[in-house]
Amino acid sequence: MPQRAFLLPLAALATLALPGCIVIPVGDLLKGPPLEEQVLARGQGFFSRDKIAILEIDGIISGSESMGLLGSQANTVAEVKARLGRMRSDPDVVGMILRISSPGGEVTACDVIHHEILEFKKATKIPVVAIIVDEGASGGYYVASAADTILAHPTAIVGSIGVIIQTFNVAGLFQKIGVESLAIKSSEKKDLLSPFRPHTEEEKQVLQNLITDMYQRFVDVVAARSGGMGREEVLKVADGRVFSGGEALKLHLVDKVGYVGDAIEEVRARAKIDRRPEIIRYSRAARSGANIYSAFGGAGAGPQDSGGITLHLDPQAFPRARFLYLWEPGR
């Protein structure tokens, strides 16, 4: 190795020990690509631009990165937070569109995103319009409720207000094959919902109380949304049912039926934008030729969404019981 090439790494290490130097944590070097602005439609203006940013909520909403049987699951909360941060730092962003295509997901993840959008509105004072493209069910609708106005495609699925927790029981199977499970626990209910033994009625009631509390919060969120209906009216439709965009409009679950272009016009009117705005989004893998109808693979998509199905045989892939604002037809 040439002496110069050998000395360069040593010099770099020595520099890190000097006062006032910049230290880059190794963890930051291992992170994925940064968010980049992607222009979906050009606007008017040479020296300043009025931007409308699209934030996608796609797929299952999760608060952690995980590997499932059918592929990877991204941390939706972290991705949404990162994109909201980019919007807040850009003074040219004068409005936001929530483009929702989600059946919901984890209760806490949905609630955190709803909260972050409300905080974003409070800090920026810019209009936020939600457009439900194909699904805005359960947690997807919960997130949409943070917007100033909700639009839905005529063929969208809207609603499914409710909470669910699902588990399985293999105690009978284990008995047949001669397998016995042992849990050493500090108290009777420490292994609540264990799949390896029958569940008692008392345990079911404990969980039902939690479900009821989370359900009441969902109802309160919907009742408190801008332009929404009263709590008693929400309770009449909050039985887990889903509705088409047109039905949701009649029930006041959404404010208008329309398309992404209509959502853009709604933001323009609310932000009082006279000239043609620039439509943007933030991406970690920007693609050329994208537009407002592109399948973004956005905040809810996995880090490598190839459109196919990958089977990962990982012990952590098997489902665990979770509280969900989730619409799962046929399950």
Your description of this structure?
- The protein has 331 residues and is α/β, with parallel strands linked by helices.
- It has a domain at 33-161 and 238-326: 2-enoyl-CoA Hydratase, Chain A, domain 1 (Alpha-Beta Complex), CATH 3.90.226.10.
- The protein is 34% helix and 20% strand.
- The protein is built from ten helices and 14 strands.
- It has helices at 3-16, 26-29, 76-88, 107-124, 139-144, 171-177, 201-224, 231-237, 245-250, 260-271, and strands at residues 36-41, 51-58, 66-68, 71-73, 93-102, 104-106, 128-137, 149-152, 157-159, 164-165, 242-244, 256-257, 278-283, 323-326.
- The strands form three sheets. Strands 1, 2, 5, 7, 8, 9, 11, 12 and 13 form a nine-stranded mixed beta sheet that branches. A three-stranded antiparallel beta sheet has the order 6-14-10.
- Strand 3 (66-68) and strand 4 (71-73) form a beta hairpin.
- Helix 3 (76-88) packs parallel to helix 4 and helix 7 (201-224) crosses helix 8 (231-237).
- The longest helix is centred in the middle third of the chain and has 24 residues, at 201-224.
- The protein is elongated, with a radius of gyration of 24 Å.
- It starts with a helix and ends in a 5-residue tail after the last strand.
- The relative contact order is 0.21.
- The model is unreliable at 1-31, 67-72 and 301-318 (pLDDT under 50).
Label the overall shape.
Answer: elongated
CATH superfamily of the domain at 33-161 and 238-326: 2-enoyl-CoA Hydratase, Chain A, domain 1
The helix/strand order is HHEEEEHEEHEHEEEHHHEHEHEE
CATH topology of the domain at 33-161 and 238-326: 2-enoyl-CoA Hydratase, Chain A, domain 1
Class inferred from helices and paired strands: alpha/beta
Number of continuous helical runs: 10
CATH architecture of the domain at 33-161 and 238-326: Alpha-Beta Complex
Reading off the top of the CATH hierarchy, the class of the domain at 33-161 and 238-326 is best stated as Alpha Beta
What is the terminal-to-terminal distance? 63 Å
Helical fraction equals: 25-40%
Low-pLDDT stretches? 1-31, 67-72, 301-318
Number of E strands:
14
Mean pLDDT: 78
